[in-house]
């Protein structure tokens, strides 16, 4: 591994301070979630290796992972039932609605939604007819009060011996995984029963942040070992964004041995592919820190910066931050944990929050029998859309006022 700085200070100094556009000002004015930039400054190591065009991933890979990332992000939709999002996807993909730009979601079908027994961890299983993929999406730590029990599990960094006796795993992540395990397996069975061997050509497991760590444990515990769920020769694809380290070096080695075995038994290299994506100024991949004995499982991760993906050399896989030799304009100049795949993930969650309130308002109006010129109790769908757009107008006006202040000039 190359030499590195102990923090992101050297990287931050190389990022020229650029004037924010009006859209960027509004985006940062609305930012409320933790982006772990301070963790990046304190704990993340910055590789001395500079990523250049020769390390750049194909545009097709960027597009593929960004599309899967849409399903990853929707795992955070725990305030509005995922079933509602699937049922009303056409309406919700319109401009200013929560799923605007989430084109990969179109035509997909929900198989099952679940909340885990531990800390109410959310996830779902969906089917993508266009790509013939069965997708397991696992949420990261929720924001606000809802996420406090999950945050407690995040902090449980004492190691737990894996049942294989092949190393140690993060005890909090392991408890969260065990809480969703029966629901994930049930969802997989339902998916295979509903869509069959011909309909499902690949299994995708995906998660962001803590959901990424739990995804690794699902593979380690169930999907890469003998089971009665997956048919022979079914390709598996792991796609995780901003994931922390899930276990120690012994467990990481065991995970890689399982991958080698799965590939040998199921048709070769293409039987299993994995993508761990890190991003500029996201400190979560630096957690838990190396000095506690934790390690990443994926040895050839990717790095997201300047709206591009780069292959990280295997010698540098434990580093969190990298210098990037690129002249492309920076869409999200401050980086952070919620800015992957060319999207502001917090914007989705904010809009879902507005949708939750709009649904409650529409339901209350309908139950009360209130009618106006624009609202009709007999058409609750139009009601919630109306209330939602009213909230959009109100909040857009608020952020415009905030960003006009001297703080953003």
UniProtKB/TrEMBL annotation:
Q: Which reaction does it catalyse?
A: a monoacylglycerol + H2O = glycerol + a fatty acid + H(+); a diacylglycerol + H2O = a monoacylglycerol + a fatty acid + H(+)
What name has this protein been given in UniProt? Answer: Fungal lipase-type domain-containing protein
One annotated GO biological process: lipid metabolic process
Q: Which family does it belong to?
A: Belongs to the AB hydrolase superfamily. Lipase family. Class 3 subfamily.
> What CDD domains does the entry give?
Lipase_3
Q: Which residues form the Fungal lipase-type domain?
A: 135-289
Is RNA-binding found in the keyword set?
A: no
Is this entry keyworded Lyase?
A: no
Q: Which UniProt keywords apply?
A: Disulfide bond
- SUPFAM superfamilies reported in the protein's UniProt record: alpha/beta-Hydrolases
Extract the InterPro entries matched here: AB_hydrolase_fold, Fungal_lipase-type, Sec_MonoDiacylglyc_Lipase
């Amino acid at each position: 591994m190359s030499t590195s700085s102990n923090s992101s200070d050297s990287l931050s100094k190389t990022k020229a301070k650029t004037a924010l556009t009006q859209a960027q000002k509004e985006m940062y004015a609305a930012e409320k979630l933790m982006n772990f930039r301070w963790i990046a400054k304190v704990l993340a190591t910055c590789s001395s290796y500079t990523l250049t065009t020769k390390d750049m991933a194909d545009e097709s890979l960027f597009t593929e992972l960004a599309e899967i990332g849409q399903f990853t992000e929707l795992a955070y939709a725990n305030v509005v039932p995922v079933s509602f999002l699937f049922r009303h996807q056409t309406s919700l993909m319109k401009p200013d609605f929560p799923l605007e730009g989430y084109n990969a979601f179109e035509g997909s079908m929900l198989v099952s939604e679940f909340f885990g027994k531990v800390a109410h961890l959310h996830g779902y299983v969906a089917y993508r007819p266009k790509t013939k993929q069965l997708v397991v999406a696992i949420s990261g730590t929720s924001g606000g009060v809802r996420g406090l029990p999950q945050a407690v599990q995040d902090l449980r960094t004492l190691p737990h011996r894996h049942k294989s006796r092949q190393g140690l795993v993060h005890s909090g992540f392991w408890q969260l995984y065990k809480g969703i395990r029966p629901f994930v397996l049930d969802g997989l069975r339902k998916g295979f029963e509903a869509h069959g061997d011909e309909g499902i050509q690949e299994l995708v497991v995906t998660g962001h942040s803590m959901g990424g760590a739990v995804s690794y444990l699902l593979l380690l515990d169930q999907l890469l070992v003998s089971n009665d769920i997956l048919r022979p020769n079914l390709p598996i694809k792991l796609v995780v964004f901003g994931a922390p380290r899930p276990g120690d070096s012994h467990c990481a080695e065991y995970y890689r041995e399982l991958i080698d075995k799965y590939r040998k038994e199921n048709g070769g290299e293409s039987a299993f592919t994995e993508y761990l994506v890190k991003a500029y100024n996201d400190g979560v991949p630096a957690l838990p820190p190396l000095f506690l004995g934790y390690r990443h499982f994926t040895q050839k991760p990717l790095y997201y910066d300047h709206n591009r993906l780069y292959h990280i050399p295997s010698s540098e896989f434990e580093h969190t931050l990298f210098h990037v030799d690129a002249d492309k304009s920076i869409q999200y100049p401050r980086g952070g944990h919620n800015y992957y795949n060319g999207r502001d993930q917090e914007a989705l969650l904010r809009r879902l929050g507005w949708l939750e309130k709009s649904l409650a308002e529409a339901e209350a109006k309908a139950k009360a029998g209130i009618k106006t010129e624009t609202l009709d109790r007999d058409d609750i769908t139009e009601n919630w859309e109306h209330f939602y757009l009213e909230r959009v107008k109100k909040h857009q006006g608020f952020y415009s006022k905030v960003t006009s202040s001297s703080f953003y000039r």
